[in-house]
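Z., the sequence and structure:
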Amino acid sequence: MKEIGADINILCSIAGVSRSGYYRWLKHADNPEKDYGDYLLIKEGFDKGKGKYGWRTLQMRLKTKKGIIMNHKKIIRIKKKYGLTTKIRKVNPYKAIMKKTQEHRTFENLLNRDFKKTAPRQTFGADITYLPFNHRMAYLSAVKDFASGEIVAWNVTQHLTMDIVLDTVERMKNNPSALSLRGAMIHTDQGFHYTNPEYIHRIKELDMIQSMSRKGNCIDNAPTESFFGHFKDDVDYRDCKTFEELKEKVEQYMYYYNNERPQWNLKKMTPVEYRNHLLTAR
């Protein structure tokens, strides 16, 4: 024992630390079994999200699914300790859908990146994204309520004809939660479909106001782009064998996103819950 004590003295001297400091560190050193139970809880949610959930989503899932309140610093520390590295979404390379023709019109940017809306059903964003699957291509059109985060209309097609956005507008009009769209703003990029006279006419029929991002400023439609990013993180759309299977996955995810997926920036509510909360508070 004396030899061990002497060895410790020598090592402490070499390391430039005191013997008492060494024992204090040893007492609080990280035990391999420490946090293991919490790690299993975190990993369950992490695996459920296919390695794409950050600490905010994990913290919300622990509270809503397990009834467990866990400090965010602890979640970050345990993730780092056990190597649970969150996968980061790649930037969507598809910004412009098609070139505009001479007859197409653009509109002023009335939104101007003012995303903090407090009244639901007044400000919407619309966009289109690509969904490659089984060596084929499909396209998803969606309309998002900027206030509640709810996806109020969507459409999946195999062709980039005007029907993809016209049918989406029709579904938005028929959505009971949207009620009257008169005077509401709908914001898009300057893509071919949204500058098309037929689309402009359809929006005008609903007495809605068009707003468009300035060319090259995709951040103006960031909330809708963000939704597409979450969709591609959460849905294994590339594994679909048929277009019908892809459509079914889209339908299931839309219900999940609107009704079951709490969001940090929506006071940890789902979009539908937050929409009802906003309407009640008015």
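The chain has two domains: 2-81, 123-281. The two ends are 74 Å apart (CA to CA).

Let me know what you think.
H.
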